[in-house]
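Table S2 (text version). Query chain:
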Amino acid sequence: MSKTLRLAVIGDGKMGQAIASLAADHGFEVVALLGENQVLPQGITKPLLGGADVAVEFTTPQFAASNVRGCINAGCPVVCGTTGWDSSLSEVSDEVRAKKGALLWAPNFSIGVHLFARMVEHAARIVSESNAGFDTHLVETHHNQKLDAPSGTARSLAARAEKASGKSMPVTSVRVGSVPGTHQVIFDGAFEQIRLEHVARDRRVFATGALAAAHWLVGKHGVFTLDHMLGT
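Corresponding structure-token output:
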């Protein structure tokens, strides 16, 4: 039987609560569930992490970089699912490598979204090579509490499609209700339309993926994505 790992959850919002609630089923003991009241006074420290073997961070863009740095300085590998802090990601990644820490960051921890991204990339290439005059567009819909728009997933999907096709993919963001996350890629022709869509029905899909990433990251050094974890 595999050893139970100690897990620190940074962020006590809906995602953090979902991760904590599923942790035991995935071989973790939650030793810290940290919200703003615990983190803001002095930042992430080794004592605050409670001896965690790995941390999972889902907070807000303004705190993500400092939270990741705190984990690395404390010698704790960290899985980060916060989006919207792209401007700091490269610098933080360099620090992780220099300190021989471990970071796995992804804009979306759904395995289905990862597969969907590969489909979108392939479809964008095929449509572009056809020269059939299709316009492309991406529409992403999330709950009305999501701070960044477009979503990190939408930006990643658009970037992959643009690299494959050599053409820009505009993105429209919709914030409404409590939608966990829907991404729709549209290829529109004069008399027909092709749609590819991924729908997340429950935020637990992201929590499960983040916990799988946390297991995978323990014992590693470097900066990783889901591509590394899934071997693609």
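Notes on Table S2: Strands lie at 5-10, 28-34, 54-57, 78-80, 102-105, 135-142, 171-175, 181-188, 193-200, 222-224. The radius of gyration is 19 Å.
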